[in-house]
Amino acid sequence: MPNIRVFWNGLKIAFLIMGTTIGAGFASGRELWEFFASYGSSSSMYVVLSILLFSISCYIILTISQRIQAHNYTYVLKELVGSKLGKMYDFFILIYLLSTTVIMFAGSGAALQYWSIPYWAGVAILGVCVLLAFIKGFEGVISLNSILIPVLIMTLIAVCLMFIEAGYGEKTDVLSEQNILSSAITFTAFNILPLIAILSVVGRSLKPVEIKVASVACAIGLCAVAVLYNETLLRISSDIMFYEVPLYAILRYFSVELTLLVSFVLWLAIYTTAISGVFGIISRAEKLYLPKWLLAGGLMLLIIPMTRFGFSNLVKLLYPLYGVLNLFILAMILLYPLAKREKMR
């Protein structure tokens, strides 16, 4: 029983990692298209490389948090880059989490528009559901991820397999593959920053074996869905420009009932990532001593008006920019074990 409990605890953290990562950008296909599929047929190989670097980074962050018993991400930042740069990245993470959470809310509006629900109504629905999650507490969020993320991953994998097996679309090269390595590393850098905020808080209560389970499980889950999804996007490359949400370019080949189901699952992915983003921001405001649901409500009043820029425009502009800016922190994470070993000599 203890071994099963340890394994399940690690698996829950893996679901939290995947729930934070598979949000509006990833689950909709827009993020994978911008960073990988748009570069051509060999892009799936770089997807694997990127996720491997990603899982190693998650392992290092959780290990640091567990060792220093971090209460929020500022403790981990100080350990990674020192006090001065840590303060700069503290501010940067807050701005980053704010803007990417805006993208989640914009993603909700875009996803529900497909079903003739007004954009602003889709944004407001997500806001209400996020607020309800914080009334229940963050432990409930982790449990929710443990249910929703396996469903999300299995649904996306099933849709991609059905699409490929049916022979829909045609796999073609679309652009030069010259810069795909830098794009893959940028993708890792982009996705790791919000996880610093989340994993810094949960890592202190984990055992080393639970950290290993979480890191390996998230690598397997993300790799399986990302590679299949990327291969599917390569087969609809000529249609991507016509869709705000690339996933709908795939779903047009299937029944209305399946499209409705997958649309709901897509929205759930957006929901779990939005919760993680809001939690990352309000966990930094621990000194205000206010209820988390109240902080979350105030934050959403700030976020919702910012969604007017549109989902695909926000992804295309902000995602590559943040990825480049995050390269330094990614390098410090990956080099941390070597730097720590040198200090111990």
UniProtKB/TrEMBL annotation:
**Segments forming a coiled coil:** none
Keyword Transmembrane helix recorded = yes
Q: Which UniProt keywords apply?
A: Membrane, Transmembrane, Transmembrane helix
Task: Give the residue spans that cross the bilayer.
Answer: 7-26, 46-68, 89-111, 117-135, 147-168, 180-201, 213-230, 250-281, 293-311, 317-339
Entry keyword annotation includes Transmembrane helix: yes
The superkingdom listed in its UniProt entry is Bacteria
Check the record and name the InterPro entries matching this protein: Spore_GerAB (IPR004761), YkvI-like (IPR038728)
Pfam families from the entry? Spore_permease (PF03845)
Protein's recorded name: Membrane protein YkvI
Q: In which organism is this protein found?
A: Caldalkalibacillus horti
Give the lineage.
Bacteria, Bacillati, Bacillota, Bacilli, Bacillales
